[in-house]
């Protein structure tokens, strides 16, 4: 029953990633036609299937290359750097015609190489009963993104300069924190050692650093105690909180270390300066009224808490006493309730005039729902300019690691694709 539910759930349109689904459909044909032994030599079948899969990824790689050329010709890449030399948009790239919802690609993806590497680890071409899956394709895309930056480094080209991470369900469990023993910490320190800036770009919005210091305590201790990091490299660690509302940078003074707030005037983007307080308040008021209405209409648990912040409003699970143990337990909202709420708020705000004059994000955080002023695309762009004011880091030099990539308002990491190259690390 649960397996059937998960299958049907993933088939919902708002949960699909059209590009991954399209690739998966291309791989279905060779699986059906060739992943069956016509002789006694199963190695021959495996090689035939591997070749068919590899050729498909090679063709997709060429389509991506063609799209990048098309977008560059029409001034759709790195448009902030210069408005000169742009062309009038004529038609669509072949990949846009095949996958209408496809976004920009800022670099090439060596998908052929990535598939062969993943196949050597996961034996995709040796499977006879299970076709290449959604997660197989995600793994291959992630590996291709990593391979690109490795190749750039080897060739001495424009390499990776900024890596941004989502917090909940990416660096740590939902509502959790980074502790000293977390295996991701040494890798984050290694990025800093390589002179790569590291930003935690999270929806968690606090206007003071204490809570970020608590949730990222293990990383802060590792950076402070490192004997290989220079002071400049340590300062290349920052937190962008509340999507794009609060910026904090690592500091240390003797035994004192943590995050210090950066004044908004230093990092705010030009378009954000035009946002009016009355529009912000009106948007949050509207979202709050909608949440209250939905709480009643959907018969949400009475323990569900409405939380209002200066730049966000949301519904979070409440607690009640367990009848058996007497201990407090969270009263969670169902997946369907979370999705109904976030899609309703998103749809309602699209026609609300004050909201249309702003940038906002509505998303399902896994156990809660939020409407935030700003977005992770702005957060990544802020970090790109903050770390390199005179020569902002380019999207092609940026990697965002997150888990919320649903194609509608359900996932807030998906907006980061507008500001930088992306990978998804949350793969079941």
Q: In terms of topology, how is this protein built?
A:
Elements: H1 2-10, H2 18-34, H3 42-73, H4 94-98, H5 111-122, H6 134-155, E1 162-165, H7 184-193, E2 197-201, H8 210-215, H9 217-225, H10 231-234, E3 237-241, E4 246-253, E5 256-261, H11 264-267, H12 277-297, E6 305-309, E7 312-316, E8 318-321, E9 328-331, H13 335-349, H14 353-356, E10 360-364, E11 369-373, H15 376-387, E12 398-402, E13 421-424
Parallel strand pairs: 1-2, 1-12, 2-3, 12-13
Antiparallel strand pairs: 3-4, 4-5, 6-7, 7-11, 8-9, 10-11
Q: Outline of this structure?
A:
It is built from 15 helices and 13 strands. The protein is an alpha/beta fold and 428 residues long. It folds into 3 domains: 2-155, no CATH class; 162-267 and 382-403 and 412-424, Rossmann fold (3-Layer(aba) Sandwich); 273-373, Alpha-Beta Plaits.
List keywords for this structure.
magnesium ion binding; globular; seven-stranded mixed beta sheet; disordered N terminus; disordered C terminus; four-stranded antiparallel beta sheet; Alpha-Beta Plaits; 428 residues; 43% helix; nucleotide-binding; alpha/beta
Task: Write up this protein.
This protein is α/β, with parallel strands linked by helices and 428 residues long. It folds into three domains: 2-155, no CATH class; 162-267 and 382-403 and 412-424, Rossmann fold (3-Layer(aba) Sandwich); 273-373, Alpha-Beta Plaits (2-Layer Sandwich). Helix content is 43%, strand content 15%. It is built from 15 helices and 13 strands. A seven-stranded mixed sheet has the order 5-4-3-2-1-12-13. It is globular, with a radius of gyration of 23 Å. Mean pLDDT is 85; it is low at 1-11, 79-88, 404-420 and 423-428. Its EC number is 3.1.3.-. It is an enzyme of class 3 (hydrolase). GO terms for molecular function: 5'-nucleotidase activity; ATP binding; magnesium ion binding. Belongs to the ISN1 family.
């Amino acid at each position: 029953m649960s397996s059937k539910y998960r299958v049907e759930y993933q088939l919902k349109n708002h949960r699909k990633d059209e590009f991954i689904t399209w690739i998966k459909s291309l791989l279905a044909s060779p699986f059906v036609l060739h992943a069956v032994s016509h002789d006694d030599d199963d190695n021959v079948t495996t090689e035939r299937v591997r070749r068919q899969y590899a050729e498909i990824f090679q063709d997709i790689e060429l389509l991506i290359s063609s799209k990048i050329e098309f977008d560059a010709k029409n001034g759709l890449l790195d448009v902030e750097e210069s408005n000169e030399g742009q062309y009038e948009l004529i038609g669509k790239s072949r990949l846009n015609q095949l996958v209408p919802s496809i976004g920009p690609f800022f670099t090439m993806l060596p998908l052929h190489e990535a598939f062969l590497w993943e196949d050597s680890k996961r034996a995709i071409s040796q499977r006879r009963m299970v076709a290449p899956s959604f997660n197989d394709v995600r793994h291959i895309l992630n590996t291709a993104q990593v391979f690109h930056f490795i190749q750039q480094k080897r060739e001495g080209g424009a390499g990776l300069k900024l890596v941004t991470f989502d917090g909940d369900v990416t660096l740590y469990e939902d509502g959790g924190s980074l502790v000293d023993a977390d295996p991701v910490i040494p890798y984050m320190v290694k990025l800093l050692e390589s002179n790569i800036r590291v930003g935690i770009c999270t929806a968690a919005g606090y206007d003071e650093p204490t809570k970020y210091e608590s949730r990222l305590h293990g990383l802060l201790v590792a950076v402070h105690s490192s004997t290989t990091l220079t002071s400049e490299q340590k300062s290349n660690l920052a937190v962008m909180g509340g999507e794009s509302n609060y910026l904090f940078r690592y500091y240390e003074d003797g035994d004192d270390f943590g995050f210090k707030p950066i004044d908004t005037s230093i990092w705010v983007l030009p378009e954000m300066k035009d946002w009016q307080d009355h529009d912000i308040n009106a948007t949050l008021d509207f979202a709050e009224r909608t949440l209250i209405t939905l709480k009643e209409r959907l018969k949400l648990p009475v323990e569900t808490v409405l939380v209002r912040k200066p730049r966000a409003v949301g519904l979070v699970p409440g607690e009640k006493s367990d009848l058996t143990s007497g201990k407090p337990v969270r009263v969670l909202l169902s997946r369907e309730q979370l999705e109904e709420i976030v899609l309703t708020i998103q749809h309602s705000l699209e026609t609300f005039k004050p909201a249309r004059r702003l940038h906002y994000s509505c998303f399902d955080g896994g156990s809660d729902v939020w409407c935030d002023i700003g977005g992770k695309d702005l957060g990544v762009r802020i970090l790109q300019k903050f770390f390199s004011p005179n020569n902002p880091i380019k999207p092609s030099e940026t990697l965002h690691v997150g888990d919320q990539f649903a194609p509608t308002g359900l996932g807030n990491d998906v907006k980061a694709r507008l500001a930088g190259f992306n990978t998804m690390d949350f793969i079941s």
